[in-house]
Amino acid sequence: MRKTYAEVPGVSIGSRSPSSWNILWRELVRDRLAFVSLLFLGIVILLVYGISFVLDQEQIVSIDLFALKKPPSAEHWLGTDYGGRDVFGQLIIGTRNSLSIGIIVTVLTGLIGVLIGLISGYFGGTVDNIFMRFVDFFMILPTLMIVIAFVTAVPKYNVVSFSLIMTAFLWMGIARLIRSKALQERELDYVQASKTLGSSHLKIMISQVLPNLSSIIIVTMTLNLAANIGLESGLSFLGFGFPESTPSLGTLVSYARDPQTLESRWWIWLPASVLILVLMLCINNVGQALKRATDARQRKG
Amino acid sequence: MSFLEVKDLKVHFPSRGGILSKKIPPVRAVDGINLSIEEGQTYGLVGESGSGKTTTGRAIIGLNAITSGSVLFEGYDLAKGGRRSHLDVRRDIQMIFQDPYSSLNPKKRVLDIIAEPLRNFERLSPMEEKLRVQQLLEQVGMSPEMIYKYPHEFSGGQRQRIGIARAVALKPKLVIADEPVSALDVSVQAQVLNFMKDIQQEMKLTYLLISHDLGIIRHMCNHIGIMYKGRYVEQGTTADIFGNPQHIYTKRLITAIPNIDPLQRDKQHIYREAVREEYERAHDSYFDNEGFALPLKPITKTHLAALPERG
Amino acid sequence: MWRTVARRMVIMIPQIFLLSILVFLMAKAMPGDALTGLLDPSIDPASLEAQRERLGLNNPWQVQYWDWITKAFQGDFGQSFRFKMPVSDLIGQRMMNTIWLSIVTLILTYLIAIPLGITSGRYNDTWADRFITGYTYLGFAAPLFIFALLMLWIFGFHFGWFPTGGSVEPGMKPGTLEYVLSKFYHLLLPALSMALITTVTTVQLLRSEIIDTKQKDFIVTARAKGASESRVYNRHILRNSLLPIAAFFGYEITGLIGGTVFIESIYSYPGMGELFLSSISLRDFSVVTALVLLYGAASIIGALISDITLSAVDPRIRIK
To answer: Where are the domains of chain C?
Structure first.
């Protein structure tokens, strides 16, 4: 890809060269499935955040004794749950909450993972050894159980503490990946050159090495976003995710743990299940397309 | 006091040993070398790969930790303290790297690459900075309009010019050039070398030129040091080394330079054979039991060689 | 080889130690202690305090930790207040169910992965391959709990082909053939739901291994020597492609740990995961800590197995 640019001087003379962002974007648009997925995601995000802005959240999560377990109707598009709460409204709010926490956790784990991976890989040696033993320990933890146990152990449990707990046990994967890439980068002459030019370690890490890792960070974080939404809804499904008053997509699916609801009131849990599935599929599509775009061998065009 | 004086420099790399494996003796990459360079001259460091010539250069500029010895640059001992000590002295020493492909950050524009040292040491406004970079580009024979391009848009020779522009941006006094042209096409090599000579005159630079190519060394250097397995085998002026080589290793290196004059071919061949025979016969007396070079002995005032005791 | 194993074992010891401290502190942080549930609230505070003193609950935490860990290593995790029986007996019953579930899942995983991976890799870019790749694409994105729920809904409730809960028909005598068959019958749908999702990565791996191996020089050589197509596949490509798959066996174990919790909860299958969830809801913390410790040990062993198999298969990975 890059080579073709050098060989076609007419394209780039006088103009700025395409940055890696542009290349990623172009590849994404060219991949039809990924582009449709991205479009769909954009629409869902706009709808969900838009509608939930208008919706009266208080009214939706409060119990209405006159409308228990109603099937879908004109008033309640997807019926009501055992507390008489409108399922469609919960679906909108739940999607918003699931997306929000997925994004928050992805960003936080990304920050921690990139920081630790970068320091560990850039310095190597003893620093790397210490950091990696630390990461190894976190890697062997049975994450799901520990997160559940922490969720129950934490006093004053709320959305913030939930995202912090999730973050605390999910940053290792990206840290390992960034570390191995940083280990490769630090051997390259441009890093050595920066040292001889008087740049500090911090400056080299942030402004020299980090830009070379940007595409892999974007790819990993996209794929992590899907995984985090899946994990959050899974935890909420088991009853250890969001607090009761804050519905998530997993909360709606968890109604299906009641055999009667599972068997005969599909409108409560099936839409949320399908939505989770489709969201994760779309985010994965985008992530895989980005991954192909960063790997020159797999690029489509 | 010399401009740069390296005294008994040693760089040892510890061999990796874990919890369960036993200690291995360190690799002696550079094992006690002395050299001094006068201002405005070019000093050539020659040797085969693994001889420690690159490590010597990297130790002087602070990329490799110095095990012992001293590096005196205008009287400051750079061996004491870490890479970040003597920062204001170190800005006077810069480096040109071997590989023009990996030595320029692929994600940075030419402007950012050349401006990196300026941003570290000089406070310039963006306009001034841009102007300086454009001047530097012109100085290395490139169009100043190239500042917004990325490294991959240039050829190897052009990249190396960008690398040189970056190295001289701070108007350094000493430039360490580590195999500056060995990654380039032969046709471009001479261009870049001659350009390096021009810029040396223009900016009154001192070069430490590291190369395995004796042809380049002869073309560029006033003084030469020949390294083998971390030690010097011979040291002297260009005339000393090429006119009167003493050590058998030096002799073999020099006879290996191809000669394009067909009339000399037979003479050259006979001489080469003679040197080869001497090398095989006398090899053991020129190196110690472990295969390292012997201590240097003075031959003339400028010429030293690691020769065995006579008799 | 043995050096690698020994080295990995050495790394394991501090890991287990750290894990136990973490689990212990976590249990301490949880609201209430062993007595809160054990005694009825009408008892007067003074005798409660005396009880605490007797049980050592007022000692400094490191003393309590030492007490707990030494007992734990002898298999004594204390009492479950909910079931009024020793934790180790309680877990013992459930553990067998989870182990069976895991074994059947693993077998199904490979039974699905190997034929699909081989077909997809050998005939890549055909319709069969596109179909299989589509399945792996879906399976990679689908969360396990949603897929399992759909399976239960469709095959358990809608068609009624499989039981929808429990590990065995009530009233069966252990040891009889019916008992064993009923156990297997109850296992099948949960195990299949999990296997269909976990197998996806193995299928993808096997496919890309085969496609990679197909282009290697030694395969070209084998063909050039006139080896038949089936011989090329069976003798040369498969042997080289299956090795990396074997090496990921340890990772499969680690992956199962989280999966069984969801599966057991959805299918009300009485295993460790289901016990874990109900114990944590009822604040039966001695059971919870014991289970987290066991799961942690399982995941350490899983990592150990994968490291060892990896180094056995690929000498380059061996720790020097």
So the answer is: 32-74, 87-313
Residues above pLDDT 90, as percent of chain A:
33
* pLDDT (0 to 100) of residue C8: 77
Between C70 and C58, the more confident residue is C70
- Specify the pLDDT at position C309: 78
Do C320 and B19 lie within an 8 Å CB cutoff? no
Put simply, the answer to whether A208 touches B105 (Cβ < 8 Å) is yes
Q: Give which of B106, C320, C303, B46 is closest to A142, Cα–Cα.
A: C303
pLDDT in tens, B51-92: 888 999 999 988 888 888 888 888 888 877 666 667 778 889
- Subunits touching B (CB < 8 Å, at least 3 pairs)? A, C
Name the 3-class secondary structure at B71.
strand
C87-313 architecture in CATH? Orthogonal Bundle (1.10)
Residue B98 contacts residue A189 (beta carbons within 8 Å):
yes
Q: Summarize the confidence of residues C273-281 as an average pLDDT.
A: 88
Res A10: pLDDT: 37
Split at pLDDT 50, 70, 90, the class of A175 is very high
Angle at A277 between CA A274 and CA A282, to 5 degrees: 125
Whether A280 sits inside 8 A of C280 (CB atoms) is no
Q: What is the mean pLDDT of residues C270-293?
A: 86
Mean pLDDT, range A290-299, rounded to an integer: 68
CA A218/CA A19 separation, integer angstroms: 14
A153 and C29 within 8 Å at the Cβ level: the answer is yes
Q: Which two tokens stand for residue B238?
A: 């260009």
- DSSP codes of every residue in C75-108: T---EETTTTEEHHHHHHHHHHHHHHHHHHHHHH
d(C-alpha B277, C-alpha B271), whole Å:
10
Interface-testing mutation among A37, A140, A146, A169, with chain C (most C C-beta atoms within 10 A): A140
Q: How far apart are CA B174 and CA B92, in angstroms?
A: 6
Q: How far apart are CA C126 and CA C120, in angstroms?
A: 8
Nearest CA in chain C to A150: C26
- Residue C108, Cβ density class (10 Å: 0-12 exposed, 13-18 middle, ≥19 buried): buried
Please give the average per-residue pLDDT across B221-229, as a whole number: 91
Q: Answer yes or no: do A149 and C30 touch at CB < 8 A.
A: yes
Quick one: DSSP state of residue C39? S
Task: Name the residue facing A188 among B84, B91, B102 (closest C-beta).
Answer: B102
* Section C138-142 average pLDDT: 89
Distance between start and end Cα atoms, chain A: 9
Cβ contacts from A onto B, under 8 A: 78
- What is the torsion angle, in degrees rounded to the nearest 10, for the CA atoms of residue C182, residue C187, residue C190 and residue C195? -140
- Give pLDDT tens digits for B198-207: 999 988 999 9
How high is the pLDDT of residue A151?
85
Alpha-carbon gap, residue A249 to A234, rounded angstroms: 9
Cβ contact B70:B1 at 8 Å: no
Question: Could you give all domains of chain B from N- to C-terminal order, each with its CATH number?
Answer: 4-15+25-229 (3.40.50.300), 242-311 (no CATH)
d(CA A132, CA A148): 25
pTM of the model: 0.84
Residue B221 structure tokens: 């250097």
**All chains having 3 or more CB pairs closer than 8 angstroms to chain A:** B, C
CA distance C192 to C161: 13
Give the Å distances, CA to CA, from A191 to A123, A198, B19, B148, C294.
Answer: 12, 11, 31, 21, 45
Query: Model confidence over B126-181: pLDDT tens digits?
Result: 999 999 999 999 988 888 888 888 888 898 889 999 999 999 999 999 999 999 88
Any chain C CB within 8 A of the CB of A255?
A: no
CB contact under 8 A, B19 and C6: no
